[in-house]
Design goal:
single chain; four-stranded parallel sheet; globular; five-stranded parallel sheet; alpha/beta
Amino acid sequence: MGVNIRGRHFLKLLDYTPEEIRYLLDLSKQFKNMKRNGVPHRYLEGKNIVLLFEKTSTRTRCSFEVAGMDLGLGVTYLDPGSSQMGKKESIPDTARVLGRMYDGIEYRGFDQQIVEELAKYAGVPVWNGLTDQFHPTQMLADLLTMEEKFGHLKGLNFTFMGDARNNMGNSLMVACAKMGINFTACAPKELFPAPWLVEEAKKIAAENGSTVRLTEDVAEGAKNADVIYTDIWVSMGEPDEVWDSRIRLLRKYQVNADVMGQAKPEALFMHCLPSFHDTKTTIGAQIAEKFGIPEMEVTNEVFESRQSVVFDEAENRMHTIKAVIYATLC
């Protein structure tokens, strides 16, 4: 029997089986081929979606808008100042109003409970474009990128370096466990993922022939890795005051040439972006001036190296999001 996820929400990969994730990846490849070859695929003409953004983004917004328009959808973008959700109107009421007008709702913002509540009341598919706990659309793009580069997923050794209890650390651990990839969180103990999620991921990984481990040792984390992945050290929405303590905790986990040299020779460097790999951003310049570090979670040398596939990941956001929209609406 084929996979059918029509009408489903896409809130976190914990909700999806490996077979369903595989279906979305294969569908993403089909849409990517059509896009690259100029084959029209306006399969959802007459439908409309709304994008609710409480946190700004380049890749997520552009991916949903282009994916939606390629599919023939009408797309409405609501920035943080354009919706009354949570201020003058409750989340359940917002969900029920938008669900009467739109065929699908994307949410990008803060607590996972918000997107879960939207899904409970909307009556139409709700997609998680990022919360503080999970980032499932990024996961599909990352899995697709790895499969394109290695030809397979199962059995790869994947290491995440940095704040492993943020939405990326959580989501990557689950994604790897679901797809049989050996996952290592390399971070200070204070920034390990929540114990309940680690135990859940370990159980899932065991079912799929892979492992989940945590280490504070950079050399141990990098050894034999096929992929080294990192993210910015302070997530969107966190106060500026945490930069000092976070830099002190994570400085030794910077992905540099020495770290990549301890991984496999053909190892990839991955990052969900944006990245503070130089001082060409306002925040990058401010941090460099205040703390004396011109490169943060990754050096510019690694970011711009042949091992870096960060812009392949960025493009794949569009193709994988298109697959999610299509599969849940069609």
